[in-house]
Design brief:
The complex is a heterodimer of chains A (495) and B (355).
Chain A (H helix, E strand, L loop, with lengths): L5 E12 L2 E12 L3 E6 L5 H8 L7 E6 L2 E3 L4 H6 L2 E4 L11 H6 L10 H14 L15 H14 L4 E5 L7 H16 L3 E6 L2 H7 L2 E6 L2 E7 L6 H9 L17 E8 L7 E6 L3 E5 L6 H8 L10 E3 L2 E2 H6 L7 E4 L3 H5 L6 H9 L4 E2 L2 E2 L1 H15 L15 H14 L4 E5 L7 H14 L4 E5 L3 H7 L2 E6 L2 E7 L3 H11 L4
Parallel strand pairs in A: 3-8, 3-9, 6-7, 7-8, 13-20, 13-21, 16-19, 19-20
Antiparallel strand pairs in A: 1-2, 1-4, 4-5, 9-10, 11-12, 11-14, 14-15, 17-18, 21-22
Chain B lengths: L3 E5 L6 H25 L4 H13 L2 H26 L7 H18 L5 H30 L3 H21 L33 H18 L1 H11 L1 H6 L4 H28 L10 H11 L4 H25 L4 H17 L1 H4 E5 L4
Antiparallel strand pairs in B: 1-2
Classes of the chains: A alpha/beta (495), B mainly alpha (355).
């Protein structure tokens, strides 16, 4: 083996926020041409560490050494200039602009933009790395997966030498993820260094050359991937105890229909029809951007369908949403926790009240004290940190925010649950809790689970539906092995 | 490399910090005003002393401040209600005019009613007229997607012209020697003064209404819905909050409060309707609401401060021949510095650590 070139070294990086020590003497090194996976639970300090690398945050102590030279990033711009680029979990794109414009945004040289050249260059770059994205498309119209490709294109265009991916597969389907991995390997092959943050152990094992595990802000393990014996051992290292990756799912007796979608053809959907009954979980899988978003938004009252296309709990859509009650009804756990499910500038108590306020109302008065008692108990039960009702939503990490949303929505004792990527960004222990919650909730509710994680869909669902180009390609029982084997082809429109 | 860098706050800025930022913003705007004065050949320090003395230096000045602060306070309270939902109501001036018109209609139509009946009727008419004037842009916004800033602003001009039309025409006092004004209100239509002061009972109206607005946001479910909708429209829709209705509600409430200010001004200050009541309180109210970060109690303090500025500038005009527009300059400077100071609620400067 040739002596490896250390492209990047982190030396004893420490960072704290108030009393919370997010990183404590973290030392890591990344070699050119290798993929380093960074594993850790929610709040283990991965995001902080990467924000430091990307120039968003400055470390309290420690050094960043690039090519043997110490660096001090004061802005993301400087980090990008030094060749360190990051694909964030929450994309940083201008929705109203085209793909090409987003990629060229922040480019320094030249005053004039030549649209034709721009498009050509991006199309070439995209093709080179096996991505399919139209340079002229408006970013706001793209799916999450496509948006991620734009983010990657931005970095490739700027010739970043170190690319950091913050949970990149969370929004991707298995096929898309495979594509991404191929792209990552291609990039590594060209001598770029890649840091890959993920919760998905199999992925890490399949793609990473080196693995580092963070726990409570410290590096607890760092080793080449070849030295790892099993994903179980890795998971144990991450959470500090053995975790069960399987959940026990017993079929329940099906009861009344809670959701009926009939020939729904609005918003680019193609005659989607299905029924959902109390006692079952229907897992909806497919590549992001194949109509799942439109379907979910219609069911959850954000888009109005034509008459009789959607019936919820026995009522037509219009009737249902005219005067929805707050409990024993529809609960929607959206993928977009920050933009849709919470008010970032309000306290956790106010966010808890967002969908439950009707339950804490007497006359015109809101019973905040009562709500606070309840919310405090839920915070304990769901282990939400910081456990402070006065903290504002933007202060919470993604995982904790999701737990807050789940705590709130389950408190409403829903009879119909629409859960969109419910465990995205959660660590294994928290994901397991969510899975158990969903399985328990099945007793009283019908659950529509929209997920990009096929393993999750398989573990939880009683039936699986596959979406492709706005159509529900097939719908079958999860123990129908022939059909299950065909899922990848169905998602690609081949079956 | 600069020694300071900008970092996002991890904790929200506390009350003490906010006060410091506000004080700094005010000081900066006064300094800016000083530069303008110096350019005009007036000594900034003597001007400042005249300004302060004129505004707060005597009992008469203080009473004048409070008198001017009452309509400003009510308008700002209204503006703040709409701003909470991030509906940018710039129309307090017009809603104020409509309130004065509504109250005047009641006063001129039922002059014989006793005080206990007439004053509430005038208040109700003022609120109805102001509220409806606020509802129009709200409906246009939610149904036709117009921009409420532009519509409310334009409607101010319509409202002022409507007021002019009335006092120059149908409501004109036949004994006014051609001056555009209505006849004096009957005694029953006049809000009285408090004890031996020149301050009228509008002050008490302000206190009660301020308390109501505070309680509305603090204790009611609808108030909570407004806060939530103001923070995140999408989350409001997600939670099934009736966003359209909230917009209508805050604009009606906003207009009604500004309308109440018009009622107090017409009834207590001039005892009739005349164009001179339109002196821009509705615009000052916007500065006040922002300065106070929309909090009812702070709005009271800020209203008093900006009323003081108006009174002080009058003295400045008399003593140092500073143009009247100077008051507007300071007001604008305050709004700009306070808005700029908002930066510090989310970000902070930190000294760079040398590694």
């Amino acid at each position: 083996m040739v002596a490896e070139v250390h492209l990047l070294r982190l030396e004893a990086i420490s960072k704290s926020f108030g009393k919370v020590q997010a990183n404590s003497e973290v030392s890591l090194s990344l070699s050119a041409g290798r993929i380093l996976a960074l594993l850790g639970e929610n709040g283990a300090g991965k995001s902080t560490l990467m924000a430091i690398l990307a120039g968003q945050l400055q470390p309290d102590e420690g050094r960043i050494v690039l090519d043997g030279e110490e660096l001090c990033f004061t802005s993301t711009e400087k980090a990008i200039g030094a060749g360190i680029g990051m694909v964030y979990q929450h994309f940083k794109l201008v929705e109203a602009m085209s793909v090409a414009e987003n990629v060229f945004l922040g480019k320094k040289e030249g005053v004039w933009l030549r649209k034709g050249d721009m498009h050509q260059e991006i199309a070439r770059l995209a093709e080179q790395y096996g991505m399919r994205v139209d340079p002229a498309a408006r970013v706001g119209d793209l799916s999450m997966g496509e948006k991620q490709q734009v983010e990657i294109l931005k970095l490739l265009y700027r010739q970043s030498r170190i690319l950091i991916f913050d949970e990149p597969t969370a929004v991707l389907t298995p096929a898309e993820a495979e594509n991404l991995f191929a792209t990552m390997r291609l990039m590594a092959g060209q001598g770029k260094g890649i840091i890959f943050i993920s919760h998905k152990l199999e992925e890490v094992m399949s793609v990473a050359d080196d693995i580092a595990v963070l726990r409570r802000g410290r590096v607890v393990a760092a080793m080449p991937a070849s030295a790892v014996t099993s994903t179980g051992a890795l998971a144990e290292c991450m959470v500090g105890r053995e975790v069960l990756l399987q959940v026990d799912r017993q079929p329940l007796e099906l009861r009344q229909i809670v959701l009926k979608v009939a020939q729904l053809s609005d918003f680019g959907l193609g005659e989607v029809s299905f029924e959902l009954r109390q006692g079952e979980i229907l897992g909806l899988v497919g590549v992001a951007g194949n109509g799942q978003k439109q379907l979910v938004e219609t069911i959850c009252g954000l888009r109005r369908p034509q008459e009789n296309a959607v019936r919820l709990l026995g009522l037509d859509w219009v009737q249902f949403f005219r005067n929805p009650s707050w409990e024993r009804t529809l609960a929607y756990v959206p993928e977009d926790r920050q933009g849709l499910a919470t008010c970032q500038g309000l306290s956790l108590l106010d966010n808890f009240l967002l969908t439950t306020s009707a339950g804490f109302t007497r006359g015109p008065w809101l019973q905040r004290g009562l709500a606070a008692d309840k919310a405090r108990r839920l915070m304990e039960e769901f282990d939400i940190r910081p456990a402070d009702l006065n903290a504002q939503a933007w202060q919470l990490s993604g995982g904790n925010l999701q737990k807050m949303v789940l705590a709130r929505e389950f408190y409403r004792k829903p009879r119909l649950i629409v859960a969109e990527q419910p465990t995205q960004g959660l660590d294994i222990a928290a994901a397991e809790d969510v899975w158990k919650l969903l399985l328990e909730a099945r007793e009283a509710a019908g659950i529509l689970l929209v997920t990009g994680d096929l393993a999750e869909a398989m573990a939880l669902s009683d039936r699986i539906g596959v979406m492709y180009r706005g159509r529900l390609v097939d719908l079958f029982a999860v123990d129908d092995e022939d059909k299950v084997a065909l899922i990848p082809q169905m998602m690609a429109g081949l079956a | 490399m600069s020694l300071l860098r900008i970092a996002k706050r991890q904790e929200p800025l506390g009350v003490g910090g906010s006060c410091c930022v506000l004080a700094a913003a005010l000081a900066l705007s006064l300094a800016l005003a000083g530069v303008f004065l110096a350019l005009g050949g007036t000594s900034p320090l003597s001007a400042l002393s005249v300004l302060l003395h004129g505004a707060f230096g005597s009992r008469h000045a203080l009473e004048d401040c409070v008198l001017k602060a009452i309509p400003i306070y009510l308008c700002a309270l209204g503006v703040a209600v709409a701003f909470r939902l991030k509906i940018w109501n710039i129309g307090a001036e017009g809603q104020f005019a409509l309130g004065a018109i509504g109250a005047t209609w009641a006063a001129l139509t039922f002059p014989e009613l006793p005080k206990v009946a007439l004053l509430p009727l005038m208040a109700a008419m003022a609120m109805a007229a102001g509220g409806l004037w606020g509802l129009v842009p709200a409906i246009l916004r939610q149904r036709l997607r117009t921009n409420e800033i532009i519509v409310t602003l334009m409607m101010n001009y319509i409202a002022v012209l409507l007021l002019d039309y009335l006092v120059y025409g149908v409501w004109k006092d036949p004994t006014s020697f051609g001056f555009p004004m209505t006849p004096l209100f009957s005694d029953a239509a006049i809000i009285g003064r408090i004890g031996g002061t020149t301050i009228n009972w509008g002050l008490a109206h302000g206190l009660v209404l301020g308390l109501l607005v505070w309680a509305f946001f603090r204790f009611t479910r609808t108030g909570f819905a407004v806060l939530a909708g103001g923070d995140n429209v999408r989350a409001a829709r997600y939670a099934g909050l009736p966003y359209d209705r909230l917009v209508f509600l805050v604009m009606v409430a906003s207009g009604a409060l500004a309308g109440w200010a018009g009622f107090v001004e017409a009834s207590a200050t001039v005892n009739r309707l005349q164009p001179s009541i339109m002196v821009g309180y509705g615009y000052t109210a916007i500065v006040v609401a922002w300065l106070a970060r929309l909090h009812p109690l702070a709005i009271g303090v800020a209203a008093l401060l900006l009323a003081g500025l108006r009174v002080g500038v009058e003295n400045l005009q008399l003593d140092l021949q500073v143009p009247a527009a100077f008051g507007g300059i300071i007001e604008g400077a305050i709004l700009l510095t306070v808005l700029a100071g908002g930066f510090f609620t989310t970000y902070r400067f930190t000294r760079r650590k040398r590694p």
